[in-house]
């Protein structure tokens, strides 16, 4: 099912249209086609003219790095999506005394929990999802990347999104969870939809479809967990079952929700990191050539690509009491969109922020959020991107874009391409 609107072909194509947009009063409108194509000029203007901005949607928009840090570490701002007001009514509305499976699952995602619930769940999950587990996957990730590139190597053309970025993370996560090979196509279909769970706005049709997907996925995982309880295996589900902390352990629903979150967030973030990163390198051939000549730069390169065009553009918070920022009062109950994509281009924090420089000194970008809600899957996303991008550059010589017109997904939280067609020398 297509979970986007029908505006995909309405792509910004003229300087006059952008100039007309800029002639209007400063505003935040992520639904504009020209914003989807390139949000950064809009972010720069907001940051300069109205860095704590009340949007036409009735939510606050934060674009400065310092303000983003302040909000993300302030306990007066809640991550709990059940506080998102009118945008979440459909997800958490009771029907016959029950909220939807989607709402039940979302409410147990560590991403959307506040202390003390967040503290407890993080303490348990982090014992199973360790950096050592991720590092142990490097050979398998390399194997999958090689396999995907071998499938297109003789053609001289590929779509980096469909041929590499999309299949890689779902295959890796399925391996981590111990999903049988024959079930991975089903998981791929589910994972394509699950990222829409992260969006703060959804229609009734999208909600109904996502609820069905989560129901099916939960039933599948419940069966898989039952098998692991009977016959333990050395995989992430087995580790999550076994983990204990001072007599505490994950409930069945928490375990299932954590596995679904791994697919929903881990899949799409990695897809967009690889594809956005490769687009940036294709548009900066000097940087791609530098990386090709010095592949040991890949770790710093991926950090710069994360900063330059972040897969996650926005993090949502809700004020649980009145808070003053930049002489403006954010009232209790109001939503705040922390634009991490804008913060990553703040010239106060990042000199020459619109320049892509893979040798840029390590900087504290916010692409994996900040504070207690920093992404637990960041290491996995980084490792996959490092291997995918380095291997692609080394194995596919003379990589070039095959189109001047790229289409971007119609999403608010995440930023990613629908396709990234390239050619290369055989």
UniProtKB/TrEMBL annotation:
Pfam families named among the record's database cross-references: p450
PROSITE patterns from the UniProt entry: CYTOCHROME_P450
Top-level division of the source organism's lineage: Bacteria
Family as reported in the entry's similarity comment: Belongs to the cytochrome P450 family.
Oxidoreductase in keyword set: yes
PANTHER family per record: CYTOCHROME P450 YJIB-RELATED (PTHR46696:SF1), P450, PUTATIVE (EUROFUNG)-RELATED (PTHR46696)
Keywords of the record: Heme, Iron, Metal-binding, Monooxygenase, Oxidoreductase
Keyword Oxidoreductase: yes
Annotated protein name in UniProt: Cytochrome
GO function terms (MF aspect): heme binding; iron ion binding; monooxygenase activity; oxidoreductase activity, acting on paired donors, with incorporation or reduction of molecular oxygen
């Amino acid at each position: 099912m297509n979970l986007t609107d029908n505006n995909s072909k309405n792509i910004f194509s003229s300087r006059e249209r952008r100039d007309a947009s800029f002639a209007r009063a400063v505003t935040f409108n992520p639904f504009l086609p020209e914003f989807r194509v390139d949000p950064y000029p809009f972010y720069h203007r907001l940051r300069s003219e109205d860095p704590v901005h009340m949007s036409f949607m009735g939510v606050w928009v934060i674009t400065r790095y310092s303000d983003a840090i302040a909000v993300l570490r302030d306990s007066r701002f809640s991550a709990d999506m059940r506080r998102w007001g009118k945008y979440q009514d459909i997800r958490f509305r009771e029907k016959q005394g029950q909220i939807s499976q989607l709402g039940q699952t979302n409410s147990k995602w560590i991403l959307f929990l506040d202390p003390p619930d967040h503290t407890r769940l993080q303490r348990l999950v982090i014992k199973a999802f360790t950096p050592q587990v991720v590092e142990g996957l490097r050979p398998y990730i390399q194997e999958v990347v090689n396999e995907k590139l071998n499938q297109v190597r003789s053609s001289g053309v590929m779509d980096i999104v469909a041929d590499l970025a999309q299949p890689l993370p779902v295959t890796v996560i399925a391996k981590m969870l111990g999903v049988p090979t024959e079930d991975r196509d089903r998981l791929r279909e589910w994972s394509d939809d699950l990222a829409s769970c992260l969006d703060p706005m959804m229609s009734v049709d999208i909600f109904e479809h996502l609820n069905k997907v989560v129901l099916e996925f939960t039933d599948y995982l419940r069966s898989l967990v039952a098998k692991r309880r009977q016959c333990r295996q050395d995989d992430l589900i087995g580790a999550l079952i076994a983990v204990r902390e001072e007599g505490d352990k994950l409930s069945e629903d928490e375990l299932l929700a954590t596995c679904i979150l791994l697919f929903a967030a881990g899949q799409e973030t990695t897809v967009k990191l690889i594809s956005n990163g490769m687009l940036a390198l294709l548009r900066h051939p000097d940087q791609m050539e530098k990386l090709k000549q010095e592949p040991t730069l890949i770790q710093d390169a991926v950090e710069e690509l994360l900063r330059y065009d972040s897969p996650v553009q926005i993090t949502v918070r809700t004020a649980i009491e009145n808070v003053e920022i930049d002489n403006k009062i954010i009232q209790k109950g109001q939503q705040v969109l922390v634009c991490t994509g804008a913060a990553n281009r703040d010239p106060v924090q990042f000199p020459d922020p619109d320049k892509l420089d893979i040798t840029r000194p390590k900087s504290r970008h916010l692409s994996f959020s900040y504070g207690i809600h920093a992404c637990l899957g960041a290491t996995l996303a980084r490792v996959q991107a490092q291997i995918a991008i380095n291997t692609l550059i080394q194995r596919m010589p003379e990589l070039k874009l095959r189109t001047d017109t790229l289409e971007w997904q119609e999403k608010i939280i995440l930023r990613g391409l629908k396709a990234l067609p390239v050619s290369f020398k055989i």
